[in-house]
Structure formats: C-alpha cells, structure tokens
Design a protein that fits this description.
This is NmrA-like domain-containing protein. InterPro entries: ComplexI_NDUFA9_subunit (IPR051207), NAD(P)-bd_dom_sf (IPR036291), NmrA-like (IPR008030). GO terms for molecular function: protein-containing complex binding. There is one protein chain. By secondary structure, the protein is of the alpha/beta class. The chain folds into 2 domains: about 5-145 and about 185-220, Rossmann fold (3-Layer(aba) Sandwich); about 150-180 and about 225-280. It contains 10 helices and 12 strands. It has helices spanning about 15-25, 60-65, 80-100, 120-135, 150-160, 165-170, 185-195, 230-240, 255-260, 275-280, and strands at about 5-10, 30-35, 50, 70-75, 105-110, 140-145, 170-175, 180, 210, 215-220, 225, 245-250. The strands form 3 sheets. The chain has an 8-stranded mixed β-sheet with strand order 3-2-1-4-5-6-10-9, with helices on both faces. A two-stranded parallel sheet has the order 7-12. Strand 5 (about 105-110), helix 4 (about 120-135) and strand 6 (about 140-145) form a beta-alpha-beta unit. The protein is globular and about 55 Å long.
Length: about 280
C-alpha cells in the first residue's frame, strides 16, 4: 500500500493505539485524535497528536484541522456509558461531516461482530446507530466488525463482581453457555490498516466481506472458537489462580454470546491464539 495519511479518532484507546502503531509500522503518516493530548511518555513515537472533542461546540473547527490532508479517517471510539453513547452517535455525525468537508476519501469504522443481531444490548444498539451514521454519509465507508478482544476477558475475569463477593468466594465468573472467538487487538489493527488502502482493499486473511466498495462491511474474528468456561479455566491457570470458574447468566450479553453470534467461523483472520496472548500478558 502506498504511503497515506491516516487519522485515528480515539487514537489513545486500546484499539486506537494499536492502529496507530500498525499504521506507523507500515510507513504511513499517522495523526491520533483524542479529547486530550497524552503526555509524551504515553505517545507512540512518530505519531502526531491532536486534541479534539467530537461533541464539543468547537468540534467542526477542531476536527476540520485534524482531518486536513487526510486520506483516511479511522473511528475507534468506544465506551458504554451514557456520555460515550453520545460520542458514538452525535460524535460520529460530527466526524463524518468533518471528513466530508476535508475531502477525506475513506472512513474505516471499528465495530462489533454481528452487532446488528444484538438488539437486546443497549450498547450494541448504539453501535448500530453509529454504523448507520457513516453509511448514510457522503464519505465511502468500511465497517470493520471485530470479535471480542482477548483483553475483554482479562477485565471480566479479573474484575471483582457483585461487590467483590464472587472474588472473595474464590471464583472466576464467566458467561454461562457463551460461545466465543476472541481476537487479539494487534490482529484487529492489522485488519483496520489493511482496509485503509482503498474502499475495495483486500485483507490479508480470511474475512466475511459484505456490501460493496464505499458501503462495505468486513468481519474478522480469532483463530479458534472457545466456550466461556474454557476461557475462564485458561485464564486462571495462566495467572496461577486457584479460583474456580463459575458460570453466570447475564441478561442481554449472555443471550448474544450463547447464540453463537459472537463467533464468525468464516472469518478466522486473527493469528494470535488466546493461550499465546495469556503467555504474553498473564501475571502468574
């Protein structure tokens, strides 16, 4: 892919930072946009950092300046709070308009595997609304729907739940009946940067590719399908924990994960397995 100017909105978050690193690795000019510019010690060397709040009154001017000269805008904004929901929808509208006015040729929007089947989950409904904002806009768009990141399970298994009671009882809570196909965030970043090449750019691995250039949806998932209990067992073993896996029903999310909609067997784009990720990150 020829050198491009890639602007990553949400470029200081987990996925955004990984996209910044991958785009730089491939020789692109990269600009990371977030509400606040991080301290130099937390910046990725080689990236330019710009402060812009997509829902603030000065968003058009700040986003316009951030997008000047950009070939691609990547939206990796995430969050499940009410404030984040506003950014995902109203913010998406501001980003899409600013990208159009700046003459940006392509938007790549990070979303969730089979998100349109997750109507029982409020966050998923918000993500679908975000997708529709871009699809209705003037800038050619690729929706990059990814399976759950490995990091999602680390936070879930390691976080005290129910006021810490379950952790004190020596358990690792997991979603009962969940069928999952987790993907490493570095693989997601690789897919995003693949997609940045052009509206019809091929990706370097198996994907589910739907729609047409300019209104395209690409799905990527990890290399293996696992159930919730197996993930919890592997997490506990890697962390040297004696806590026992405990399956819990979780309204909304639980039904989505149990249905198999969190998997995409035809889109095994990811290369890093869950065990490989644990070996790299676990604190045993």
């Amino acid at each position: 892919m020829a050198e491009r100017t890639v602007v990553v909105v949400g470029g200081t978050g987990l996925a955004g930072r990984a996209v910044v690193e991958e785009a730089l690795r491939r020789g692109h000019r990269v600009r990371a946009v977030s509400r606040h510019v991080p301290p130099a010690a937390r910046q990725v060397l080689g990236a330019e950092y710009v402060a812009a709040d997509a829902v603030a009154g000065d968003a058009p001017a700040r986003l316009g300046a951030a997008f000047a000269g950009a070939d691609v805008v990547v939206d990796t904004v995430n969050g499940e709070t009410p404030a984040a929901a506003k950014v995902l929808t109203a913010g998406a509208a501001s980003i899409a308009l600013a990208a159009r006015d700046a003459g940006v040729g392509l938007a790549v929007v990070l979303s969730i595997v089979n998100v349109d089947r997750g109507g029982a989950v409020g966050y998923y409904r918000t993500k679908v609304a975000q997708e529709r904002v871009y699809q209705a806009g003037a800038v050619p768009t690729t929706l990059l729907r990814a399976a759950q990141f490995h990091d999602f399970f680390d936070r879930f298994f390691g976080r005290p739940t129910l006021g810490g009671a379950l952790s004190r009882l020596g358990t690792v809570p997991y979603l009962r009946g969940a069928r999952l196909q987790p993907i490493d965030v570095t693989d997601v970043a690789r897919a995003v940067v693949d997609a940045c090449a052009a509206p019809d750019a091929p990706l370097d691995g198996p994907v589910r590719d739907e729609g047409e250039p300019g209104r395209r949806t690409v799905t990527v998932a990890g290399p293996e399908e696992l159930d919730g209990r197996d993930l919890a067992r592997r997490w506990a073993a890697a962390h040297g924990s004696r806590r026992v896996p405990l399956g819990l029903p979780v309204p909304g999310y639980g039904a989505f994960f149990a249905s198999g909609d969190a998997t995409a067997p035809d889109a095994r784009y990811g290369r890093v397995t869950y065990d490989e990720w644990l070996a790299r990150t676990a604190r045993a």
